[in-house]
Amino acid sequence: MDATKRRHLSKEEEEIQQPPTSPTTNPFAPAAKRQSKVEELMQGSKDEETRDLLNLIENRSEDLDVFIAQRNFEHGVGVILELKELVASIPIEQARKEAEGKLETRVQQLVEVLCGELKTTPDRSLRRGSAVLRRPVSLLIQLGQVSKACRLFLKNRSGAIEFALQQLRTEGSITLFINKLSKLFFTYLNETAGEFEISFGEINGCFSAFTVWLETEMKLFVEKISSQVFSGNTEITDVAECVSNAQTHCAQLKSRGLEVDFLLNNLLMRHIQAAIKDHRQKIIDATKLRNSEEGWRPVNMGTPQAADRLVEEMNQLGLKKFEDFRYQSCFIQLTTSSLAFTRALISHVDTCVKMVMPELEKSMLNGIFDIASCYTVFIDGCLKAERDGNKDKFQLIKQNATFLAISLFPLIEQKLKKNLSHPPRKLEELRTSFLRDISK
């Protein structure tokens, strides 16, 4: 009996310890229903917010159309920037993409209008200077169209420069025309550089475009003046004056931090070198022709007044002791060939130093040496031929040689040392040996 009771009590305890289970019970079902209702409320809120934003965007888009029609571009750009923020805040992706597409169309519409403001027309910005471009350029930059603003700005300035140079009439001397042309061109470059710095100075990557543009404009300018100056009919002194004027006006760009004189010199170099070479050869040919016709007669000026004018001319050329070669008031102990050679050589040297650049110094010095040696060889040969001949003729030849050795050549060396970085050693050696030969 006791054992049977204990077995029944043990079973009842096991039944009490096992919890009742039901396969159809879902304790999470109420929570899932609550979550679905929250999502529905959130979706409804998004739809309502999207509708409100789209309505606001539509109203501001109408305002944008009005501003564009009224050419009130500043307010138009402000509306576009506001619309971009509104479109970005649309919560529904599909609606946001559609709004972005519509906004992009309006942005392109305004960009096209602003680009039209930068187009080159003779009756608009070409006559009013580069400052008038500041407004459309600034607005295009605000719209993110930096490269387009930069390209159109520089294109506009190219048109302005071309238009201005075409309006310049070719009247008067060539030096006066080139001076006006150079002044106008480099004034436009200086103005453009200043305006470019204002509009694009703080934007990375734009200065390289300006550099390319500047080089292109310089090439066009050099082509234009080269067709006028280096045509072959211009006197070498006028060529030097034109080059000097261009270099002087080019130097004004240094105030903008633009060292473009080296670019101008590089573009002019081959033209200058050819002009100097041609002039050197003309002097040598003329000297040889005069040498072949030399009669070795002293210059007779006819009157003391004419002799005074010749002395004054030579003094102005730098030959301060020319009076020492004058005698009997009207006569000069030099031949007409020596006077012509003196004028030609000094003119050539003055021309060279006026157009000097480091790359041309050696060729200039060699050319001057060739001219000088052409005459010294001739005189040295005449001295040797007349040493035992006519004494008066021999003395006149020696006076001409002495003039070259102690007056003309030292003046030339002084000019070269003052203006060139390379010393004229070959010319110094020529003078020394020539002086030694005529002293024998």
Report what the structure shows.
The structure is a single chain. The protein has 440 residues and is mainly α. The chain has 16 helices and three strands. Strands 1-3-2 form a three-stranded antiparallel sheet, with no helix packed on it. Residues 1-6 and 11-25 have low confidence and may be disordered.
Query: How far is it from the N-terminal to the C-terminal residue, by CA?
Result: 169 Å
Biggest sheet: strand arrangement: 1-3-2
> What composes the largest sheet?
3 strands, antiparallel
- Assembly classification: single chain
Low-pLDDT segments, ≥5 res: 1-6, 11-25
**What is the number of E strands?**
3
Helix content percent band:
over 70%
Structural class: mainly alpha
Rg from alpha-carbon coordinates: 45 Å
- Helices and strands, in order, run as HHHHHHHHHHHEHEEHHHH
Count every helix, treating DSSP H or I runs of 4 or more residues as helices. Answer: 16
Mean pLDDT: 85
CA-based shape: rod-shaped
User: Which percent band covers the strand fraction?
Assistant: under 5%
